[in-house]
Amino acid sequence: MKLLKQIFSYITLFSVVFFTSCGKDDKKNDVPETYNFENANYSGQVERLNLLKELEGYLKKANDGAVIDATQVKAMYANDGYTWTSDAFAEGQPTKNLKSKTHPDQQAAVESLIDQLADLSVNGSTTTSEDGAKTYLFDENGFEPIQLIVKGIMGSCFYYQGTSVYLSDSKMNVENTDLVEGKDYTKMQHHWDEAFGYLGAPVEFSGANTDGGVYWGKYAKKTIGGGLTTIDDLMDAFIAGRTAIDNKDYTSRDEAIGKVRAHWEMIPVASALHYLNGAIDDVADAVLRNHKLSEAIAFISALKYNSEASVSASQVDAIIGALGTNLNEVTPVEINQAITLLADAYNITNAAEF
Amino acid sequence: MKKVLRFATVVVLLMSFSSCDPEKPMDNLTYSDLFEQTADNIIIPSYAQFQSDLSALRADFDVFDASEVQSLEKLQDQFKATYLSWQSVSAFDFGPAADYSTLLLMNCNSFPTNVSKIEDNIQSGSFDLDVPSNYEAKGLPALDYLLFHTSQIELLTELSDSSRINYISACIVDMQTRVEGVVEAWDSYRAVFVQANGNDRSSSLSLLFNTFLYDYEQVKRNKFALPSGFATQYGIPIAADNSVVEGRFSEMSFELMDANLAALEKVYMGVGYDGVDGVGIYEKLKEYNAQSTVVDGDLASAIQEQFAACREAISLYTMNLSSEIENNNVNLSETSNALQKLVPMIKNDMRSYLSVTVTSTDADGD
User: Fold this and answer.
1) Do A286 and B233 touch (CB under 8 A)?
2) Which of A340, B32, B195, B246 is the most buried (most CB within 10 A)?
3) What is the pLDDT of residues B91-115, one digit of tens each?
4) CB of A47 closer than 8 Å to CB of A198
5) CA A138, A139, A142, A145 torsion: positive or negative?
6) In chain B, where are the structural domains located?
7) Does B27 touch chain A if contact means CB atoms closer than 8 Å?
8) Are B202 and B250 in contact (CB under 8 A)?
9) Given CB atoms, is B9 within the 8 Å cutoff of chain A?
10) Which residues fall within 8 angstroms of residue B36, CB to CB, at 6 or more apart?
11) Fold of B29-354
């Protein structure tokens, strides 16, 4: 019986593969399967992802009881007067910075969280989950500054640049015939590549091959749990848009812009749902719960930085507001309220599966 | 459009293949008889019993007289009966019991209880029992402390303090309200439960299996291995700590454990509240002719025998669990092994025949 079951599952699998590859033959021959464009260049974005990686690594030392130097973190954030030490910068110091690319309204907010973290690292103390596995540093109301800083930068810098800035009219209505001096790409091609670079996804990223993503490319996997095809849809949109630019087909490019914005938006949505669900599962353990809620809050906040967001800023505030101002006193009903508001805003009916 | 077509083709193909697969267990074996027996003759009457025990506890509490030892004894006895009947519902932490406004398991039986938090709440007089930080200061474990932690004479003195009485009252009412909600919700949830076929995460089979497994693992680990020093964290042993047993102050850990095992055994065998043996997981495993990978032979019987072996092992102790741990009774290790042996039978063998997945997830690394 079991063998038969296995045989059938193989046959089914085989036919799925067979039919999928059949379908792919229909695709336009000039749309590649991956983002492996010959003249694609987004080294500046890769550099910024690496800047955040090293910054995050330093901040997390606070969870081990280390004192955090606010001046140093701000120097890292602005890349002004700090010497980078991670392997990514072994060949030379980075020239980019995170601060100037963060949404203007948020730069001061990030720096004030840095001050708060530095203060807590001296005057506060870390707490450990009941199972002894996780230790985090929270403020008096249960918010975790490290998560709000790191995931906050993912939202107000990477996501903002990737969905809004580089796909905006001012970055898209630019030269697309003459190459940038000394380069093998046009300005428009490069801007598109830069938007893609902020996704932190490998060129061959797909729903079937989710390895190697960083930041948004890593959290993109949270969409799979809820049954979304975000990863394939988003990669298809990025590839289609770049192909359209190569073909000077601006109608298709503009369609792709809408798709990138809509599909990328599902990554913070799915990640927030995932952590809100997790917070309910761990509701009795304040450390695990408040850590997950802090992650969720940062992901929900990110939704503001998409210029074609499906939710308004006041909706975002209302979702976060459902959790109250003191996470130490949040109830499962309140967390569920946040889940419901978020899921309803995106017509998601299977929120619990994320 | 192209994508829709492609998707539709795959779906149609998948559907046609599944339908010409008559040997697939899920196709010809239904579980509605199991669900009906479990809902009507086990779950619903067990909740009713717990609800009625709580009412009786409330009634004894309402007429409690702090000048009479007999009055305290009556209250203590009814508390024990209530804690025992809780053990018959703890395995059904899904549907109404898992509703976010209810979370019956966490609100009724989070142990070990936090004694200093209880005392702080009583002293301040201002507390919100809905807040998760108070889960460890409420429910049956809190009452276990408040009604048993010292001699009867001293308890009577303590319980003449109205702030203490108010707190006990709040704890009882909180449980009553939650259970009442669950009992009422089962009126309509019953139809959902018996019809939710299939084996995905939200199917009744998956819910029943996963809460059964979780409840059993609670017995094995939190009620026994952890206090006895047989639990590990990341492979590193955790030292014995007899203060974390269930029913610490009433000293009824073994009784509670046995009641919990007996309740799980009844769910497994399909033994109803009326004592009649109907369709249980046991019967389903028999239908599959399920074989055990842990011991040789029939899985259905192996699990039945292992439940009996575990309960037999517990019945041989003469003192309460806390004292046995303190006295390093050498048999504890054997009991731990007996309890452990059932885990792979349920988690691997039973799960694989039922074709469901374990839904409890591990925390991810960030």
Assistant:
1) no
2) B246
3) 999 999 999 999 999 999 999 999 9
4) no
5) negative
6) 29-354
7) no
8) no
9) yes
10) B194
11) A middle domain of Talin 1 (1.20.1420)
